[in-house]
């Protein structure tokens, strides 16, 4: 099978099925997994699909608004790898704000042996933190988003303004040269305030969230201090991150 024919078949399979794993594509097309990985990189460069951990999804699906359980199940192993880098940055007796991201939930699990004081608007993260003997947790007030299990609104923002913490840790929905983005204004306003109240801001994002934008802009690149991701960043985005003094940490470092 010629290369272009194979690329066309891969693109069609991913579009029709909504996703496809590297293992499935290799078996289906009778080629090696390494060949499929190279094919997916080529198709992503042509904007035919987006690569995710272990496979690919169609263009646009990464911006789909999923409920908390669905988000938690997507690329869970990759989230754990990204989250594992958190422990190198957080010290004992730190104060932290956590947003409602599932990648942030994975990062909290790396801090179970630290004495930390925490603030969050996430029901899931508050319950998780309550299990750690050395952690204190302040659950922010507000209106409950029943689908995503986070609290938001004027009361949430007002309460956040009373705190100043060492670190704000947040998951990224979309990040580009123009800044960080989210799909709803209600969540974006809370994240923006969380960033303002942190002395240092750590953003967590896999490669599918990069060079993307969303409905609501949270902040400029200069307002984050660290970006933890899974792949090396190149080109204009990397230049802008450097220009804005953002330290990029990858899972292979």
TrEMBL record:
<dbReference type="InterPro" id="IPR001034">
    <property type="entry name" value="DeoR_HTH"/>
</dbReference>
<keyword id="KW-0238">DNA-binding</keyword>
<dbReference type="GO" id="GO:0003677">
    <property type="term" value="F:DNA binding"/>
</dbReference>
<dbReference type="Pfam" id="PF08220">
    <property type="entry name" value="HTH_DeoR"/>
</dbReference>
<dbReference type="GO" id="GO:0003700">
    <property type="term" value="F:DNA-binding transcription factor activity"/>
</dbReference>
<dbReference type="InterPro" id="IPR037171">
    <property type="entry name" value="NagB/RpiA_transferase-like"/>
</dbReference>
<dbReference type="InterPro" id="IPR036390">
    <property type="entry name" value="WH_DNA-bd_sf"/>
</dbReference>
<dbReference type="InterPro" id="IPR018356">
    <property type="entry name" value="Tscrpt_reg_HTH_DeoR_CS"/>
</dbReference>
<dbReference type="InterPro" id="IPR014036">
    <property type="entry name" value="DeoR-like_C"/>
</dbReference>
<dbReference type="InterPro" id="IPR050313">
    <property type="entry name" value="Carb_Metab_HTH_regulators"/>
</dbReference>
<dbReference type="Pfam" id="PF00455">
    <property type="entry name" value="DeoRC"/>
</dbReference>
<feature type="domain" description="HTH deoR-type">
    <location>
        <begin position="3"/>
        <end position="58"/>
    </location>
</feature>
<keyword id="KW-0804">Transcription</keyword>
<dbReference type="InterPro" id="IPR036388">
    <property type="entry name" value="WH-like_DNA-bd_sf"/>
</dbReference>
<protein>
    <submittedName>
        <fullName>Transcriptional regulator</fullName>
    </submittedName>
</protein>
<keyword id="KW-0805">Transcription regulation</keyword>
């Amino acid at each position: 099978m010629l290369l272009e024919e194979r690329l066309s078949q891969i693109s069609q399979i991913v579009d029709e099925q909504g996703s496809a794993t590297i293992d499935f594509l290799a078996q289906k097309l009778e080629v090696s997994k390494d060949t499929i990985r190279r094919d997916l990189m080529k198709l992503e460069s042509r904007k035919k699909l987006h690569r995710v951990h272990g496979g690919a999804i169609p263009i646009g699906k990464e911006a789909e608004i999923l409920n908390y359980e669905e988000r938690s199940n997507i690329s869970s192993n990759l989230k754990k790898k990204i989250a594992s880098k958190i422990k190198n940055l957080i010290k004992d007796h730190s104060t932290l704000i956590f947003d409602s991201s599932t990648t942030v939930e994975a990062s909290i699990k790396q801090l179970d042996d630290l004495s930390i004081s925490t603030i969050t608007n996430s029901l899931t993260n508050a319950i998780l933190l309550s299990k750690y003997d050395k952690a204190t947790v302040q659950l922010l007030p507000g209106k409950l988003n029943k689908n995503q299990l986070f609290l938001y609104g004027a009361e949430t923002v007002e309460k956040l303004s009373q705190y100043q913490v060492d670190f704000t840790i947040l998951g990224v929905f979309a990040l580009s040269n123009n800044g960080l983005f989210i799909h709803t204004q209600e969540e974006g306003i809370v994240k923006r305030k969380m960033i303002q109240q942190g002395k240092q801001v750590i953003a967590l994002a896999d490669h599918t969230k990069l060079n993307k934008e969303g409905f609501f802009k949270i902040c400029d690149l200069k307002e984050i201090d660290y970006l933890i991701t899974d792949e090396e960043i190149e080109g204009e985005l990397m230049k802008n991150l450097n220009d804005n003094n953002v330290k990029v940490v990858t899972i292979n470092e």
